[in-house]
């Protein structure tokens, strides 16, 4: 079957005679169209004649088709001096071609910026493409973006006038690039960095529109190269289904079937082949491996997560009517880029995925660590709203399309088009509306803006600027709307334009009915608030200024039964210079009451909080170890800490209350590109084994958690022992209940060898790897009692004892309040007092030594 050479999306036809007649009538020197390449194969045409831009993918900015002067145009407004808008079309496999289009420049100049717009060629990804543009300073420029950095390849004077139309074209023939304006070549250069890619248009600081797009090539598009596709089919066929989660494997199976169909189809175009390769590579890249053993209440999301998926101010999790929505970044096949999706878990525990789409194309954005996270909320009609991947970018806003099971780009709905925006935080209201807080660039400051989606009218409006101060940048943290419709806002301040550590954690409440701002005590304050007028929860402390040393990092809040804010946050101060403390602050009715929840070791820049009647839960993540996720539960007796998801190296989290005392967990393992779903229903009583605790290892070592080292249970002289075989560095295992307070722990420990600096013994009141008491035998012949607090060892007491290779000693440590008493073979050696640690589990530790452990016994101390 003979295939046509033209792949066209032209919607209107103009007779050749008419076109030639118009061209002949055009006076010399006008800005009318003249083709840069008169012969060759037409790969693509577009005049937007049906009022649609279905063949185009919006990368950023807002684009719409308009009618003007008898033609249809694709238009964008990027009037902000630093606003960028990019739209793309065509095939990523195109190599040598000419792209041309008619460009009408409406608004061309911006004070304080270099406004310039033009066509894109060989768009491989956002970090790699060629750009031919006209700028406000009267120059035509041929630029290259390679590895994310722009460089000027060539330029020539060319006057640009507002209200005029210019025909821009760029011819790419191997390494030779030639730019033309109105049919006249004005720039030519050699460059080989970008070999293939799509076409597009980039507006920067200007209001422009374009039409009459034509892509031509000298080669015959009917010649199709399927070599690479065949190689990917072969590679995919070697993968084993048993290694991957079923949902991802199903996606890969579909992609492979499509690829095979295209490979076998004699009528397949090169575009079909390239798309099949892209789909197959994407499916492979997004396979999620099967998990190993998981803790109770934790399951792995069956879709792969991009390692970029991390920030403290996102709202990526929503639970409604038994359905959980988890928004995340997913990997792209192009290095340095990512896609966005929402994983959906229904009430039966089955998973599906909503990919973010720009029309028919998967939304894809450049990586920007810490700034790309999606935030989601549900409106009263059950539609999901998502803002994502904005760091001083224009709107990137998506709404669920349940018919296609996608999230579709609806950025054009948003007000303040052209604003440069960062850190969207979004929340649903009880009346079905959706609210949004976000940071916006505004001259000498970056302000906090408040927006509202009216669910009845399906429209967004800017409600207010809630925070603004000269030389300051607003960092949104959290957003809640109570039953009365009052909007509660939590945010931080930083020096303009940005800082890694922020200051003066603040709260404000907005009343939409009166359009007034209030402190937590109800007093009215003028908006937008400033650091001096805001309700400051965490003021500056000694040694803290607007710098990166001390301050706030990450904050979330809930409302109590009286709609008063309860805030969890991380704070670094001169009082605790080694790490960020986890803080809790609540408004009591007369003022803010703040307390420290945890400060023993360093935590990661993530936190969340929930409230269930008399119980408040704060979730935080440690920086080290395999048991990183912690919850601090506060009731009438104070704070109790517990481990969640042991064995999973979580980096970031988010938590949503599902009712009935159950919290839904969003746990991100950045290093392994894995996302986990979990549920937490509160602490059990007791949280772990009770006393007495006895272990002779006859039933294995199920009671023990290995932190490091080489541990196994084996027979020694006819009885089972816990063996540690590593002789280099630390080896540690722990067991028991973190709630244990006053107890006696003892065990038989055999020193299998003696090496320089070798030391082994018991651990007590073990909180984590950085906090515990240790009673050990040192190779120099000493019994030593140490405490380790915040990672620092301190010797409390010591006494000479006999040690030797092959020797077995029974160590015992009694912990009664702050009195610590040490025994060897049933004989008391010394007693000491220390107040550093009040509760924790037990453990054994060796250092540069192989040991055998048996007959571990823990008994409560009677009152």
Tags for this model:
8-stranded antiparallel sheet; disordered N terminus; 863 residues; mainly beta; 10-stranded mixed sheet; 63 strands; single chain; 4 helices; 51% strand; 6% helix
What does this structure look like?
With 863 residues, the chain is mainly beta. It contains four helices and 63 strands. Strands 17, 18, 19, 20, 21, 22, 23, 24, 26 and 27 form a ten-stranded mixed beta sheet that branches. Strands 1, 3, 4, 6, 11, 12, 13 and 15 form an eight-stranded antiparallel beta sheet that branches. Strands 49, 51, 52, 54, 59, 60, 61 and 63 form an eight-stranded antiparallel beta sheet that branches. Strand 32 and strand 33 form a beta hairpin. The radius of gyration is 32 Å and the shape is globular.
How many strands in all? 63
In terms of per-residue confidence, which ranges show pLDDT below 50 for 5 or more consecutive residues? 1-38
Write down the overall mean pLDDT.
89
How would you sum up the global shape? Answer: globular
Strand content: over 45%
Q: Characterize the largest beta sheet: strand count, sense, and whether it forms a barrel.
A: 10 strands, mixed
Helical amount = under 10%
Class from secondary-structure proportions? mainly beta
Question: How many angstroms separate the termini?
Answer: 94 Å
Give the number of helices.
4
Q: How big is the Rg?
A: 32 Å
């Amino acid at each position: 079957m003979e295939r046509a050479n033209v792949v066209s999306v032209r919607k209107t036809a103009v007779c050749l005679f008419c076109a030639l007649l118009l061209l002949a009538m055009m006076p010399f020197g006008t800005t009318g169209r003249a083709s840069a390449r008169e012969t060759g194969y037409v790969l693509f045409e577009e005049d937007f004649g049906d009022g649609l831009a279905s063949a185009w993918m919006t990368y950023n900015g807002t684009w719409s088709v308009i009618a003007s002067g008898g033609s249809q145009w694709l238009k964008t407004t990027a009037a902000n001096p630093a606003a960028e808008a990019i739209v793309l079309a065509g095939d990523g496999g195109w190599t040598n071609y000419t792209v041309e289009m008619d460009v009408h420049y409406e608004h061309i100049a911006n004070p304080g910026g270099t406004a310039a717009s033009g066509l894109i060629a060989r768009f491989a990804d956002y970090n790699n493409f060629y750009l031919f543009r006209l700028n406000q300073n009267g120059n035509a420029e041929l630029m290259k973006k390679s590895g994310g950095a722009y460089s000027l390849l060539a330029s020539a004077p060319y006057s640009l006038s507002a209200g005029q139309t210019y025909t821009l074209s760029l011819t790419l023939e191997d390494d030779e690039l030639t730019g033309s304006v109105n049919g006249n070549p004005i720039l030519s250069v050699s460059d080989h960095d970008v070999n293939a890619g799509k076409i597009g248009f980039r507006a920067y600081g200007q209001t422009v529109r374009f039409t009459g797009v034509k892509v031509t090539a000298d080669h015959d598009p009917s010649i199709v190269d399927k070599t690479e596709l065949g190689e990917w089919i072969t590679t995919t066929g070697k993968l084993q289904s048993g290694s991957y989660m079923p949902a991802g494997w199903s996606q890969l199976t579909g992609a492979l079937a499509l690829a095979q169909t295209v490979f076998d189809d004699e009528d397949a175009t090169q575009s079909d082949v390239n798309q099949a390769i892209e789909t197959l590579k994407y499916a492979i890249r997004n396979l999620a491996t099967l998990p190993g053993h998981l803790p109770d209440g934790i399951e792995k999301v069956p879709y792969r997560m991009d390692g970029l998926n991390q920030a403290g101010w996102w709202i990526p999790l929503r639970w409604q009517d038994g359905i959980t929505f988890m928004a995340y970044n997913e990997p792209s096949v192009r290095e340095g880029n990512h896609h966005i999706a929402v994983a959906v878990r229904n009430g039966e525990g089955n998973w599906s995925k909503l990919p973010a789409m720009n029309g028919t194309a998967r939304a894809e954005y450049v990586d920007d660590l810490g700034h790309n996270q999606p935030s989601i909320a549900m409106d009263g009609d059950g539609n999901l709203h998502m803002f994502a991947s904005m760091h001083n970018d224009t709107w990137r806003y998506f709404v669920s399309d349940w018919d296609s099971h996608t999230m579709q780009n609806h950025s054009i709905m948003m007000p303040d088009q052209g604003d440069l925006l960062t850190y969207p935080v979004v929340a649903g209201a009880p009346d079905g509306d959706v609210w949004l807080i976000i940071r916006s660039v505004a001259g000498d400051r970056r302000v906090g803006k408040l927006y509202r989606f009216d669910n009845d009218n399906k429209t967004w409006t800017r409600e207010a600027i809630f925070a603004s101060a000269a030389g300051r940048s607003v960092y949104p943290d959290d957003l809640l709307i109570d039953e009365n419709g009052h909007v509660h806002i939590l945010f931080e301040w930083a020096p303009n334009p940005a800082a890694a550590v922020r200051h003066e954690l603040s709260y404000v409440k907005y009343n939409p009915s009166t359009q007034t701002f209030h402190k937590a005590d109800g007093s009215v304050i003028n908006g937008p608030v400033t650091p001096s007028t805001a309700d400051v929860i965490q003021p500056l402390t000694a040694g803290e200024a607007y710098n990166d040393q001390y301050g706030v990092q990450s904050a979330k809040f809930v409302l109590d039964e009286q709609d008063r804010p309860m805030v969890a946050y991380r704070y670094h101060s001169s009082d605790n210079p080694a790490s960020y403390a986890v803080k809790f602050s609540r408004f009591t009715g007369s003022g803010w009451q703040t307390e420290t929840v945890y400060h023993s070791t360093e935590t990661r820049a993530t936190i969340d909080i929930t409230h269930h009647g008399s119980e408040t839960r704060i979730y935080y993540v440690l920086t080290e170890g395999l048991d990183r996720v912690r919850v601090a539960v506060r009731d009438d007796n104070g704070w109790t800490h517990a481990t969640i998801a042991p064995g999973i190296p979580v980096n970031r989290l988010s938590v949503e209350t599902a009712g009935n005392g159950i919290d839904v967990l969003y746990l991100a393992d950045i290093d392994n590109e894995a996302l986990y779903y979990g549920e937490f229903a509160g602490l059990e009583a007791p949280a772990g084994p009770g006393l007495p605790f006895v272990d002779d290892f006859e039933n294995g070592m199920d009671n023990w958690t290995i932190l490091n080292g080489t541990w196994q249970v084996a027979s020694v002289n006819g009885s089972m022992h816990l063996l540690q075989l590593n002789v280099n560095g630390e080896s540690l295992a722990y067991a028991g209940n973190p709630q244990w307070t006053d107890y006696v722990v003892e065990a038989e420990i055999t020193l299998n060898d003696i090496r320089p600096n070798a030391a082994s013994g018991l651990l007590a009141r073990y909180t984590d790897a950085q906090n515990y008491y240790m009673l050990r035998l040192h190779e120099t012949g000493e019994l030593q009692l140490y405490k380790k607090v915040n990672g620092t060892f301190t010797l409390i007491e010591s006494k000479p004892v006999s040690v030797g290779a092959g020797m077995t000693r029974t160590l015992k440590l009694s912990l009664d309040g702050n009195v610590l008493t040490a025994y060897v073979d049933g004989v008391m050696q010394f007693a000491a007092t220390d107040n550093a640690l009040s509760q924790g589990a037990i453990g054994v530790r060796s250092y540069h030594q192989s040991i055998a452990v048996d007959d571990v016994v823990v008994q409560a101390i009677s009152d």
